[in-house]
Write a structure and sequence with these properties.
369 residues; Growth Hormone, Chain: A; mainly alpha; globular; 16 helices
């Protein structure tokens, strides 16, 4: 029942949160805001996660994993209130930063709990199932906007209802086992020393997930698609992650992670190449979104399965924090860098940047164990 509570709470909360960013992106684009500002919004969410995650192990040792997970469920409700009360970009940007900071703590606590609760023989399958559920949220959250629309307050109201439901799922969540004696500073830095390629993989996963989530709607609007279709593209990103997670988790229990990671990067490269066709063939946007969703989510899942096998207790929290830190760093860099590139090269700059980053990742995999 403990895992069921965590799965249910994460499901409701993520759908509610994932409705928010596409609404902001579409509304900013409709207001005629420049690409660099839209990129700043996408970067702010993950920059806040990037800042808070190094301290997660310390906070966990002091407060407890269960307490952190419950407390951070309330912050998104406050953020929704800001979005409803004002349309000032400055207030929205601050709210997005708060959303990222609380989300970073909740992200690490959920991932660590699921990994530690799973038995070693089935850890890949359990983590794959959890990531499949997360992928479903990335589909359902933006897809809800096709029903609520991206204007007015209806999307925010539905999001608030889902966030409250996520908190109710945690009623009766039992206490977790006591933390071990792993030194807190070493818990965060240990993964960097022992498995640096996992840190790089997480960074690439964040880069491939965040940039497309921020700028595929902009590309869709430029291609003449509606605001609802633009939000739907973000849902297709989630479809890619949803489809790949569970089978990838099963394969991670049986095959080398490096081979699977290479396959995910090749899928991401295919998405970049497809984007080059979008000007003449808008349907390529949907295929690119699917491949990028599979690549970004799949890369993170592979890293998390490996970490779950290798660490326990506070060491697991620290290693998960390192993954989230790297993932959010890549996710913060991606929209900021993409916004600048698109300002200079509106046609083809987005695809070229993604392809270049993926090729660097493939080269590092080829030259390092």
């Amino acid at each position: 029942m403990t895992l069921a509570r965590l799965f249910g709470s994460t499901f409701c909360e993520l759908i509610g949160v994932l409705m928010l960013m596409p609404v902001l992106t579409v509304q900013l684009a409709a207001q005629g805001q420049p690409a660099w500002l839209i990129g700043l919004f996408g970067a702010a969410l993950y920059l806040a996660i990037f800042i808070v995650t190094p301290f997660t192990a310390r906070i966990t040792r002091r407060c407890g994993l269960r307490e952190i997970y419950i407390a951070t469920g309330f912050a998104p409700l406050l953020v929704v209130g800001v979005f409803v009360i004002t349309e000032a970009p400055g207030a929205w940007l601050l709210a997005v930063a708060v959303l990222g900071a609380s989300g970073g703590l909740r992200w690490v606590s959920a991932e660590s709990y699921v990994a530690s609760a799973a038995t070693p023989a089935r850890r890949g399958a359990v983590i794959g199932a959890f990531q499949t559920m997360v992928g479903a949220c990335f589909v359902l959250g933006p897809a809800m906007l096709t029903l609520t629309g991206t204007t007015g307050h209806l999307a925010f109201q539905v999001s608030a209802v889902l966030l409250v439901a996520g908190l109710l799922c945690l009623w009766g969540l039992p206490a977790l086992p006591a933390a071990d004696d792993t030194p807190v500073p070493g818990a965060f830095t240990r993964l960097w020393r022992e498995r640096p390629l996992l840190v790089l993989a997480a960074l690439l996963g964040g880069f491939l997930e965040s940039g497309p989530a921020t700028f595929l709607p902009v590309e869709a609007l430029d291609a003449g698609l509606s605001g609802r279709a633009a939000a739907g593209l973000v849902a297709v990103l989630g479809v890619g992650g949803f489809v790949i997670q569970f089978p990838l988790g099963l394969m991670a229990d049986r095959f080398p992670a490096a081979s699977l990671l290479r396959a995910m990067l090749v899928a991401g490269l295919g998405g970049a190449l497809l984007l080059l066709l979008a000007a003449r063939w808008p349907a390529a946007l949907w295929a690119a979104a699917f491949l990028w969703g599979a690549a970004g989510g799949g890369i993170y899942t592979l890293a998390m399965v490996t970490v779950g096998h290798a660490y326990t207790g506070v060491a697991l929290v620290g290693a998960t924090s390192a993954l989230v830190f790297a993932f959010s760093g890549g996710a913060a860099l991606s929209p900021a860098l993409t916004g600048g590139v698109m300002q200079v090269a509106p046609s083809g700059g987005f695809a070229a940047l993604m392809a270049a980053v993926i090729c660097i990742g493939l080269w590092v995999l080829r030259t390092r164990r």
